[in-house]
# Entry
Amino acid sequence: MKRRQEFEQKLIEKAMKDEAFKKQLIENPKESLKNEFGMNFPESLEIKIIEEEARKIYFVLPYVPDTVSAEQLSDMELEKVAGGAGQMRDEYTYHNICVW
# Structure
């Protein structure tokens, strides 16, 4: 999970320092991530960048396939899902898309 948090922090810092990058990131995340970080994503994957507002905060819950319930996951598996550090079935996750 640490790698994802570190990457997200870099992304936030870059967007806060570079208004043009932030605008492009919000408008076209795949292209922006490819140009800035060399990341390639499949066409079938949607990436959404959301900027918080003054009076609104967002919390994002990780995707867990319907065939797997939180009750069936070990603590380690839950950590992987929450941090995007593992692959559940054949679904795209942060880990299997991004090459570190």
